[in-house]
Amino acid sequence: ITRHASAGLILVALATAFSAMMIQDMFSFVTCTRIPAKARCGLWLQAGPLTDSMQQAPNDSFQALGNVALPLLVIAGGLLVRTLVDGKPWSSEPKVSMVTGGTTFADVPDHQGLGEAKEELSIVVDFLKNPEVFAKLGAKTPKNVVLTGPGDKELMAKALAGESGVPFLEIVSSASDSPVHDVFADAKEKAPCILFVPLDTPCDDADCDLPDKTVKLPKWSCDRLDEVLDGMDEFKSSGIIFVASVSEQSLLQKIADRFDLGVPVGFESDLVIGRRLLQANRLEEAVEAFTDAAKGGKWRCGCSFCIAFNATDEMKAELANAQDLLEQHYEKYHDMSVAIPSVVLPERSLRMRQSVACSACSLSGLLGSGGAVWTAGAALATYISKNAPPGRDSQNREKMAPWHGVKVLELGSGTGVAGIAAASEGADVLLTDKDILKPLMATNMRLNQDQIEIGSVDFEVFDWTAPPPKEVLDATWDVVLGAELVTSSADVTPFVDTLASLIKPDGPAAGATAIYAHNPFDSQSAELDMELESAFTSHGLSWTTLPPLPSQATGGAALNQVVFWALQSSSA
Asked: What is the crossing angle of helices 417-424 and 438-447, to 10°?
């Protein structure tokens, strides 16, 4: 089409020039400024010689018209050619502009997923630098690329052009209403090149300072989108690499199948996120990111067409390393050992994970007092390992497990230390506490599963401000456990109300004994003890003080200072 248009242009230009010369001769003859060559012979001479008056009095008006005739006809001929070739009036305004500045990938930082975007775009760079290699191999190269994400997509497109050594073209604002074909045809003259095509809906806020604010093509993202996409297909073999930018997910999904390559800009892969989190010592989040990376999949932009990847040995190795570091962190900063010696295994202990102040994992101490193993809880666990449940003989511990078959309900389990100790002794235990502590209890159950051979343990949410759950009401309980559940006067009433409702004659723990452990030297004062005793009396509960732990059995800790109360309903 271009060759035919050029040939037509030459022919019309020659015809116009010849016609202009003939017309100028005629004007020269009329104005008597020059006798045409044809007038020197033939019919021109039959008129006789010109008179002196005709030669000496030329017509000045016709002479001036003759002087400008040639330029006017040349201009008119050019306009005629343009109209014939393109079917529209000729305009001198360019449709695209070349942006200079020499931006390359070195000018784009590697953080926040930009490094990965540069890696994905490297195939376009290789193609533009060595097109003959791709042609020889018959490799398919991306001609239409769409950039998405929160990053600076225009900067990335400029860097792609600079890295490839080809011009970077932008569509000028005045061409936004021009036919798409004309715009792309103008860009074709500068191919090979990168043509940046922003397709986002423009921001109407004049004060908007977003890096990807689009003002150049206000209609191309909606009214003329199909025309733009069809134009890209038409010029796909023109040497133009179309780089579109889209931020709206709805638009992105609509046009995805019209592009060869989608590259997220400003989105990090799980692998890179994991590495960054690991460097920041946010170990638990790093393990989560590496776990997602090791599953394989796509980048986190959520695009349905972005390049997928398979889990590599490198990803799996980094996941294993992060898991090891996290486990070492838990053991050093969050795990404590609680002795539960038995006759067979005097060195036996529980590994209890706690929520304490920390920035490397989710166990940051935000779970409150229930997220840590208090002295009273550790003492109650030790007491269970050394004593039979109420009503059973503890003298025969060498011959049988005295807690075997006992139904135990633990209130305010927190870490679950006392209940898990009872389960390791053979009891069937239900741990209860607020919903926020369920993951911590589940972790401690998993860590000590090897200690539970004949008993069982489960957990259920039980907030004392709400009625007991079905799992509590539908069972029959032999023992109710609790440790350091009252730390202020505000805790007295809800705790005693809950306990009394369970062990009253018609409660699910009717006839059961509750063992409550508290440390008067830790959080519970003598005044608080008096408030508790008064509340017990008013709710018809009786209590006795159990023997403390012997000093030699506590491993040198202050567990022997913990006081144990055995409570029952007076009506039982």
From this structure: 30
